[in-house]
Amino acid sequence: MGWRKNRWAYAVAGSFVVLATVLGYWLSRRDPAPPPPSTSPVELSIVQSMGADFNGPLEELLRPFLEQHPEVRLSVRYDAQAREGSDGAARGPHLALRVSNGSATPGGVPLFASDYVVLAYNRDLVPEAPKTWRDIIAHGYTLKEKGTVPYGIVLAEEMHSLLPFFGDLFQAGGPGDATSEAFALLSDLRFKYGLTPGACLSECVVQVFKEGRAPFAVIGEWRLPELRSALGGRLGLTAIPALPGSGARVRPVQRVYALFRAGEAPKRELEAADALLRFVEKESASRLMATLGKAALQPVAASASAEELALAAASVDAVEVPDARVRAAEAALAPIWEQFATGRLSAEGAARALVAAVSTPVQN
């Protein structure tokens, strides 16, 4: 009996050895188990072309995203070259905030409009927003005649701030009848009514308006943070009224800034960048004014502040034009304005000169 028991024991042991060998071979042929998910932080970088002092506000805008994704770390830096959106400027960072090329922004999320001008008014001097240029002239002239203010309205004699009055420069046929009317209006403000100071550049406009020496100012939206800080609730904003005779719209020139994903990167970084873009598209619009001082491109809610509503209206009136056309229009207008502002050219003469300077449509 002993040998039979031993034989049985040997058989069982041998079976276990064979089974272990087969199982080991089978397991060795399987794909290795995937590594556990990485717990290392995801480093994202954004380059922006607005200005060095824009890094902090942009980080604040994106702070809720970082709170929702604690594994993501974000760095923001300024690069002026990113404004043109060249591949060289965008390579390296995961995302780039820069000017879009037209309203269509393939691969990007439009965020806000910038560089357009609005009409500011001092609520201490003018309780309600003016609807027309006749309102502006009447209020300004009355306050000036009373000695309350030395000027009725201030506007920067800089080309970008003046372009809204010459929207025909961007039309297919070049300057037309509205150009003569625009020069006539600006001539009346300066020479007929004496409402505007001469040779007043952007710094001058801000200072005069801050000090309450004019009830109205045509101001670039990029100067609004300074006015908000100085005037608080006394600052009123609205779109620039249409020209008084023809009713032609005064259309500021604006740039639309969009956030783009830039270049290639490891999978986790690309996924985080895409998640941030989705956050910007869906959730950041309500915080744009508070954090960046910029009006959202999307329709504003009925609960928006009066300032947000005014800026949204001004932005709707604005036109997005390629930088090359803006520079060409400014170059054509600058020497003519210099002669007009010093009285060497009449309104009609300035209009004719501008038509001659832009004899063909401005090319993209």
In short:
With 364 residues, the chain is an alpha/beta fold.
Keywords:
single chain, 364 residues, alpha/beta, 4-stranded mixed sheet, 10 strands
Plain-language structure description:
With 364 residues, the protein is α/β, with parallel strands linked by helices. It is built from 13 helices and ten strands. The strands form two sheets. Strands 1, 2, 3, 4, 9 and 10 form a six-stranded mixed β-sheet that branches. The longest helix is centred in the first third of the chain and has 28 residues, at 2-29. It is globular and about 70 Å long. Residues 85-91 have low confidence and may be disordered.
What percent of the residues sit in helical stretches (DSSP H or I)? Answer: 40-55%
User: Can you summarize the main beta sheet?
Assistant: 6 strands, mixed
N-to-C SSE series? HEHEHEEEHEHHHEHEEHHHEHH
Residues in β-strands, percent: 15-25%
Question: In total, how many beta strands?
Answer: 10
Q: How many DSSP H or I helices?
A: 13
Low-confidence segments, given as residue ranges, are 85-91
Mean pLDDT: 83
Backbone CA Rg: 32 Å
Overall structural class, as computed from helix and strand content, comes to: alpha/beta
Distance between the termini: 105 Å
Shape: globular
How is the secondary structure organized here?
Blueprint: H1 2-29, E1 42-48, H2 55-68, E2 72-78, H3 87-90, E3 95-99, E4 108-114, E5 117-122, H4 133-145, E6 153-155, H5 159-162, H6 177-192, H7 202-210, E7 216-220, H8 224-231, E8 235-238, E9 253-261, H9 267-283, H10 288-292, H11 306-317, E10 319-320, H12 323-341, H13 347-357
Parallel strand pairs: 1-2, 1-3, 6-7, 9-10
Antiparallel strand pairs: 3-9, 4-9, 5-7, 5-8
